[in-house]
Amino acid sequence: MRRWVEYMVASTVIRTLGALPRPLGERLARGFTSVLQQLTPRLVSVADRNLRLASPTMPERERWRVISGVYANIARVLNEAAHFPRLTAANVGELVSFEGYENYEAALARGKGVIFLTAHLGVWELGAFAHALRGHKLNVMYRALDNPRLDALVRRYREMSGNRMVEKNESARSILSALGRNETVGILADQNTLSEEGVFVDFFGVPACMTAGVARFALHTGAAVVPAFCVWEPASRRYVIFYDPAITFSNSGNSAADVQAATQQMAAVIERYIRLYPDQWLWIHRRWKTRPEGEPGLYP
For a FRET experiment, which of 172, 239, 256, 282 has its CA 20 to 30 Å from that of 37? Predict the structure, then answer.
């Protein structure tokens, strides 16, 4: 019953937002997330703790501005996803700018596949969707939702542009096959990882466990790793996808040290973008939950 209720609520919200003009839908979505902010004090507390860890000198007023911005950004993610059925190759350029797209084309021309290094920053769902509408479909690694009905709904919207969702538990073989066909794989690499699945890197000056999978895939296959982030630019009131040049890794072997070094380089890129758009990152996630052996936890 709980799963059915969750699905009905989500389905109703998505259909309602999608039926409205985009600006009106965003205002309504912002109303939803404002209420959500009041109903999720634990998540707000996590965001506050994360900001204290990452920016110890940040004034309290600024921390709360950033936290409110996180929920406003969730509203943008929700609203834009609801409007996916209206987006086409012909009209996506009215909503999204593609900056540095030539960096992606150059990486693809290498012929060994491309890995998009991205994060829960800005409107990441729109970034993957809009990129596919430019003519290059993505293989997107994701973790299936616990509610099968809700997962099917979300997956249907994500795949409307032609993208292919690859479930995390089945990802290794699928990703290697896709890279072998010179396709593009999108991986969100900013969340906490179990110690047996990742390596510790410096992230905002605090050790954080980050997935080692991206580095292993890239070093094993020779695939280009292109940082790509879709953010909201208030000045121009447009979404912009930034494509950085492919990362040149300092070490090119497959040893544990090479994987560590490459993962640290990628963590630094993600941190740089978060610093540019701090109120558009998902600070409500317990990013520093996994600790090096012997270290105490950082969250209550």
Answer: 239
Name 227's bridge partners: 117
Calpha distance 174→195 (Å, rounded): 23
What backbone phi and psi angles, to 5 degrees, belong to 184?
A: -115, 135
State the residue for tokens 């994060």: 119
**Residue 65 has what pLDDT?**
98
pLDDT tens per residue, range 80-132: 999 999 999 999 999 999 999 999 999 999 999 999 999 999 999 999 999 99
Tens-digit pLDDT profile for residues 173-190 = 899 999 999 999 999 999
Q: How many angstroms separate the first and last alpha carbons of the chain?
A: 31
Q: How far apart are CA 185 and CA 224, in angstroms?
A: 10
Q: How many residues does the chain have?
A: 300
